[in-house]
Amino acid sequence: MIRNIIFDFGKVLVDYDYEPFLESFIEKEEDRIKFAEVVCTPEFVLMCDRGDVSFEELIKMTQAKHPEWHRELQIFYDRQMDAMTVEMPGMRDLLTRLRARGYKLYGLTNWSLFVYKVIKKYDILQMLDGRIISSEEHMIKPDKEIYDRICERFGLMADECVFTDDRVINVEGARKAGMKAITFHNAAQFEAELEEYLR
After folding, report:
1. Residue-level pLDDT at 7
2. CA distances (Å), 10 to each of 71, 88, 109, in order?
């Protein structure tokens, strides 16, 4: 029996869009592409999500490595919230209805500690009964240990959980950890697939 539903944050509960954000301070498209190659490398993302260093320190390290992007990296850090856009349509209502039906709701996200600014701004992230943030645990999805960690932390049984994420690799990670899992596209699609598990 499913008792718990676990949500990724970005592109599931809240949306973000880096393209207009980067356009706001990097005029040329070719320069935006080059900048993205600096801040979107697997190494940068991994260090950010695992919390190996703080986001602020990571920016400083990257500025030292890429002094040609010093100004842009500082803006990227200072104005991160500008990349956040809206709550994902339909998800607040869905969470409200799931909670009314007695399900426990949790969050499991790969994010730096910057996420706390996002949590403060978007009430939907405060509707959860608990959360695990990768940078606090120094482990990330899709590694099995982070799915085990949320179960241990909140006393959950993996086979009583449904996990959703917009990234297939993280969905597969949840399944390997013993959870039911759904790849998220939108609220209506997710709810329809979720109901199959809740019957």
Report:
1. 98
2. 26, 9, 8
What would the pLDDT profile of 51-80 be if each residue is shown by its tens digit? 989 999 999 999 999 999 999 999 999 999
Which phi and psi angles does 133 have, rounded to 5°?
-115, 125
Average pLDDT over the chain reads: 97
User: Do the Cβ atoms of 26 and 32 come closer than 8 Å?
Assistant: yes
Of the residues 52, 78, 104, which one is the last residue of a structural domain? 78
- Distance CA(7)–CA(29), nearest Å, equals 34
Q: Residues near 110 by Cβ (< 8 Å), separated by ≥ 6?
A: 49, 134, 140, 141, 170
45: which 2 tokens? 């993302």
What is the biggest distance separating any 2 CA atoms in the chain, rounded to whole angstroms? 56
User: Which CATH number fits the domain that encloses residue 107?
Assistant: 3.40.50.1000
Neighbours of 67 (CB within 10 A): 10
Q: How confident is the model at residue 31 (pLDDT cuts 50, 70, 90)?
A: very high
Residue 20 belongs to some domain of the structure:
no
Q: How far is CA 31 from the centre of its chain?
A: 27
Closest CA to 38 of 16, 69, 80, 10: 69
Angstrom distance (rounded) from CA 156 to CA 165 = 19
Q: Burial code of 70-104, b = ≥16 C-beta within 10 A, e = fewer?
A: eebbebbbeebebbbeebbeebbebbeebeeeebb
Domain that holds residue 115: 4-15+87-198
